[in-house]
């Protein structure tokens, strides 16, 4: 029996959610000169790049993309980054992922910045599933879903898939 997929967000709705999140980030950081947008690979980085594109058109500050690759199955923090973590000192960092489920990925993402004095660390996700095992909240969320644990959220982005942007629940 094929998996049944329920469409949660279509391409236009995803763009509307990202636009709103970008405006919330702007409102939260209006007086900054620069913010750093740290995308967690793979899809969090694509969402971070889209947020940066929107912010570049509306914000008076500069924004820069940072990339974080986490070993998500590890029982301890194992991350590869494309920047020197000291560059983040006394700056605003927005940590971005596609889906917040248990909170483990974002918790590991926080770990990258633990030894650096940041001005502010915020989180942004396209979908917040409300099933946290870690004390993680999101500051900017496209949509919050109350689902059962056995359900899965699929985020499809044109950058990596042949399909059009969409968020499905299966």
TrEMBL record:
The keyword Transferase applies. InterPro entries: PRTase-like (IPR029057), PRTase_dom (IPR000836), PyrR_bifunctional (IPR050137). Residues 8-157 form the Phosphoribosyltransferase domain. It comes from the Bacteria. SUPFAM superfamilies: PRTase-like. CDD domains: PRTases_typeI (cd06223). Keywords: Glycosyltransferase, Transferase. Transmembrane segments: none annotated. GO terms for molecular function: glycosyltransferase activity. Pfam families: Pribosyltran. The keyword Lipid biosynthesis does not apply. PANTHER family: BIFUNCTIONAL PROTEIN PYRR. This is Pyrimidine operon attenuation protein / uracil phosphoribosyltransferase. It comes from Mucilaginibacter gossypiicola.
């Amino acid at each position: 029996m094929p998996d049944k997929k329920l469409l949660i967000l279509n391409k236009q709705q995803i763009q509307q959610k990202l636009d709103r999140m970008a405006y919330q980030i702007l409102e939260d950081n209006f007086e900054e000169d620069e913010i750093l947008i740290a995308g967690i690979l793979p899809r969090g980085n694509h969402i971070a790049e889209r947020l940066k594109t929107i912010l570049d058109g509306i914000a008076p500050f500069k924004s820069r993309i940072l990339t974080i690759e986490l070993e998500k199955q590890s029982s301890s923090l194992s991350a590869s980054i494309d920047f020197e973590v000291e560059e983040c000192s006394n700056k605003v960092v927005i940590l971005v992922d596609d889906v917040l489920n248990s909170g483990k990925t974002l918790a590991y993402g926080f770990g990258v910045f633990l030894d650096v004095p940041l001005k502010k660390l915020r989180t942004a996700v396209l979908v917040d599933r409300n099933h946290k095992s870690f004390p993680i909240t999101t500051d900017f969320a496209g949509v919050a879903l109350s689902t059962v644990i056995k359900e899965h959220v699929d985020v499809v982005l044109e950058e990596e898939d042949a399909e059009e942007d969409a968020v499905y629940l299966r």
